[in-house]
């Protein structure tokens, strides 16, 4: 079996970096090597040491002076919203009704779903993201299309057919029973096939009847190892409508709690306006709050209080995601730049090591997949991004005055986008699509 030996400046995190001087939180090699075989990283460290472990025929690729990091992880995005992104002038509920639901009706057509799944994963990988937790449309065919495309590329992705049976147009509605049956069939076909993971995906409480949340609950009980993903506390009108629809619930989180949907594999998009009780409930169950900065700014939803959630007595597990197409960019670098600004508006700062921890190991921990991805550790899957901090004239000029790794990372976050992504490896294979394709 042929192997690949990568050379470059390698950076991988071991834990949350408290400060920019917290060197033991990461492993950085100025002349690093990664030996890839059978889709895995079989050796990592100083190039001179790793080279000794490479077999005679190993293919050598020299990425110096660029940075090699674990591929970025996007824990919340909607693949059927590629033609919703950049839709003007509405807050969440109007935006869903005016743009999103009509667009998602097109995924009744399996061919359309296959085309968009292909273009979505092209776009994601082109931006340096190697794992995404994706919402499909309500149609079973859309999830089939997503998983088939993901499996063909040998990507580790998490996805699910959205369950929604009310408060939306006929063309994007299922029923409690059909949602259960379709989810069951998709789980049987795709979960654990290669690197595919199924997520039980009730869209949110507004579009799921109590009967449907009962079905989601049954699916979670029957498949306790699966992820569950939904939306929570994004927008004030959404919260008010939810409490009207679920009058017995003490708050929005309680709606999901009642159906047993909280837990360590549960991913809650947004979580902006949580009460202390709701945050405690998420923390007690190890549920994950997914911060979606470009989306929250674009839809005017609010400012996620990242540092408060992290530092409270009962801290939240936090992921950071694009939320395309409410989110406005596929790039996790652009996402983290906007995240930095949201956190700044809350009077706090995130240092660049913390940002890159979040995009890699942090998001992998939040998704409970850190045993496979999110680091460059020996034994990990070989999902890798190659970053060039001099990718544009403005970046090159600014790099003239950047002396430290922290400055370089911050520059990548602040000025970088897909142009800074030189190459991407998915399960050990170079995978960056051609721009013209
Ligand atoms: N809440 C329910 N559905 C959606 C969606 O598609 N995008 C966002 N941002 N919020 C939602
Ligand atoms: Zn979303």
From TrEMBL:
<dbReference type="InterPro" id="IPR014311">
    <property type="entry name" value="Guanine_deaminase"/>
</dbReference>
<dbReference type="InterPro" id="IPR011059">
    <property type="entry name" value="Metal-dep_hydrolase_composite"/>
</dbReference>
<comment type="function">
    <text>Catalyzes the hydrolytic deamination of guanine, producing xanthine and ammonia.</text>
</comment>
<keyword id="KW-0378">Hydrolase</keyword>
<keyword id="KW-0479">Metal-binding</keyword>
<protein>
    <recommendedName>
        <fullName>Guanine deaminase</fullName>
        <ecNumber>3.5.4.3</ecNumber>
    </recommendedName>
</protein>
<dbReference type="Pfam" id="PF01979">
    <property type="entry name" value="Amidohydro_1"/>
</dbReference>
<comment type="similarity">
    <text>Belongs to the metallo-dependent hydrolases superfamily. ATZ/TRZ family.</text>
</comment>
<dbReference type="GO" id="GO:0008892">
    <property type="term" value="F:guanine deaminase activity"/>
</dbReference>
<comment type="pathway">
    <text>Purine metabolism; guanine degradation; xanthine from guanine: step 1/1.</text>
</comment>
<dbReference type="InterPro" id="IPR032466">
    <property type="entry name" value="Metal_Hydrolase"/>
</dbReference>
<feature type="domain" description="Amidohydrolase-related">
    <location>
        <begin position="68"/>
        <end position="429"/>
    </location>
</feature>
<keyword id="KW-0862">Zinc</keyword>
<dbReference type="InterPro" id="IPR006680">
    <property type="entry name" value="Amidohydro-rel"/>
</dbReference>
<dbReference type="InterPro" id="IPR051607">
    <property type="entry name" value="Metallo-dep_hydrolases"/>
</dbReference>
């Amino acid at each position: 079996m042929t192997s690949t030996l990568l050379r470059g400046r390698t950076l991988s995190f071991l834990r949350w970096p408290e400060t920019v001087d917290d060197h033991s939180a990461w492993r950085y090699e100025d002349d690093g090597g990664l030996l890839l075989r059978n889709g895995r990283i079989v050796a990592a460290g100083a190039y001179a040491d790793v080279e000794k472990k490479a077999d005679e025929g190993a293919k050598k690729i020299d990425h110096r002076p660029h940075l090699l990091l674990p591929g970025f992880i996007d824990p919340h995005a909607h693949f059927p919203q590629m033609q919703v992104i950049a839709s003007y002038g509405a807050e969440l509920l109007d935006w869903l009704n005016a743009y999103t639901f009509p667009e998602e009706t097109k995924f009744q057509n399996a061919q359309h779903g296959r085309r968009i799944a292909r273009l979505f994963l092209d776009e994601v990988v082109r931006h340096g993201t190697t794992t995404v937790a994706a919402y499909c449309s309500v149609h079973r065919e859309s999830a089939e299309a997503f998983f088939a495309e993901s499996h063909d590329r040998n990507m580790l992705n998490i996805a699910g057919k959205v369950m929604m049976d009310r408060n939306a147009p006929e063309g994007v509605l299922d029923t409690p029973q059909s949602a259960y049956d379709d989810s069951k069939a998709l789980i049987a076909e795709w979960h654990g096939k290669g690197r595919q993971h199924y997520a039980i995906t009730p869209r949110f409480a507004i579009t799921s009847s109590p009967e449907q949340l009962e079905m989601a609950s049954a699916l979670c009980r029957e498949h306790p190892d699966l992820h569950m993903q939904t939306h929570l506390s994004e927008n004030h009108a959404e919260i008010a409508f939810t409490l009207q629809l679920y009058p017995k619930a003490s708050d929005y989180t309680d709606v999901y709690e009642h159906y047993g949907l909280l837990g360590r594999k549960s991913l809650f998009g947004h979580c902006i306006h949580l009460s202390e009780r709701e945050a405690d409930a998420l923390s007690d169950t190890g549920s994950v709050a997914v911060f979606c900065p470009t989306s929250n700014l674009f839809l005017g939803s609010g400012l996620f209080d990242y540092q408060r959630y992290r530092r409270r007595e009962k801290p939240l597990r936090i992921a950071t995601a694009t939320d395309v197409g409410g989110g406005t960019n596929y790039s996790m670098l652009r996402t983290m730049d906007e995240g930095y600004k949201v956190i700044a508006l809350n009077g706090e700062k995130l240092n660049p090591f913390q940002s890159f921890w979040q995009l890699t190991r942090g998001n992998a921990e939040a998704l409970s997949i850190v045993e496979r991805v999110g680091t460059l550790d020996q034994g990990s899957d070989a999902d890798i991004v190659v970053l060039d901090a001099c990718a544009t004239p403005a970046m090159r000029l600014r790099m003239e005055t950047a002396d430290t790794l922290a400055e370089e990372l911050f520059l990548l976050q602040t000025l970088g986008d897909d142009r800074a992504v030189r190459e991407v490896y998915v399960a050990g294979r170079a995978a960056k699509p051609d721009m013209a394709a």
